[in-house]
Write a structure and sequence with these properties.
The protein is an alpha/beta fold. It contains nine helices and seven strands.
Length: 241
């Protein structure tokens, strides 16, 4: 494992925690899924350790501050940009997974000159009706209860998402999800409120879309690709970004 340092960046909402590998070139900024943290990118950061890498803990997750209100997706994007300003990052490559992809869409359309390329795992070009259907399943708070039953509920929930393929991964995601039980509810609420499709269509920088075959969002990958006809970048063309 490469040497990963940690730090805090000041924003208008509070301090944002990040994980960092020093290196050359334009930095790559990683945005995690809900409810994880920048730790989910440690293996990736180890493989790309010859360049500057930053994995951000979204507010409400990991070591970052907990929002007091119900943030909108533009607010999450603004906080990440404030954190990058505080760190001193101007131009960057952006990588977002699930909720991270939603935040990436906000950032890429808000400040397109700063984002050199955008990479997404699990884009969510959903209709309003589809977003509401997802909201019913993925926005229920898993709050602590006196008997601790929420712990088993959380463990089983992560198993349903595939985390059980690796016990260490399952445990790490379990800890992150338990500690961010309110952050999870707030972030997912912002996801389903966001009109990702409109933002996605406006992204002008080079774009790479990915999704695992067993990902809950795999059915929407082709839809996202169809919204960007003629782009068709392959992974091979991105290896030297």
């Amino acid at each position: 494992m490469s040497s990963i340092s940690k730090g805090y960046a000041d924003t208008s909402g509070g301090q944002v925690h990040y994980h960092h590998v020093a290196g050359d070139g334009v930095p790559v900024v990683f945005l995690h899924q809900t409810a994880s943290s920048g730790k989910m990118y440690y293996d990736v950061m180890d493989r790309l350790s010859d360049r500057a890498l930053y994995a951000i803990d979204t507010p409400g997750f990991g070591g970052s501050f907990d929002p007091e209100d119900m943030p909108s997706m533009p607010q999450y994007g603004a906080w990440v940009l404030e954190a990058l300003d505080s760190i001193g990052i101007q131009g960057f490559h952006l990588f977002g997974h699930h909720t991270g992809a939603c935040i990436a869409a906000e950032i890429t359309t808000a400040q397109p000159k700063r984002v050199k390329t955008c990479m997404m795992i699990g884009p969510v070009p959903l209709t309003k009706e589809e977003r509401e259907a997802f909201r019913e399943h993925y926005s229920t708070p898993m709050s602590p209860d006196a008997k601790g039953e929420y712990l088993k509920t959380t463990w089983d929930y992560l198993q349903g998402l595939g985390a059980h393929s690796n016990l260490e991964l399952h445990h790490r995601e379990f800890i992150d999800t338990c500690s961010a039980y309110m952050g999870r509810f707030k972030a997912y609420s912002a996801v389903w409120d966001q009109d990702f499709t409109t933002l996605f269509k406006d992204i002008a920088c080079p774009l790479l879309l990915m999704c695992a075959p067993d990902d809950v969002l795999i059915d929407y990958l082709d839809r996202a690709k169809e919204m960007k006809p003629g782009r068709g970048e392959s992974f091979a063309e991105w290896r030297e970004f």
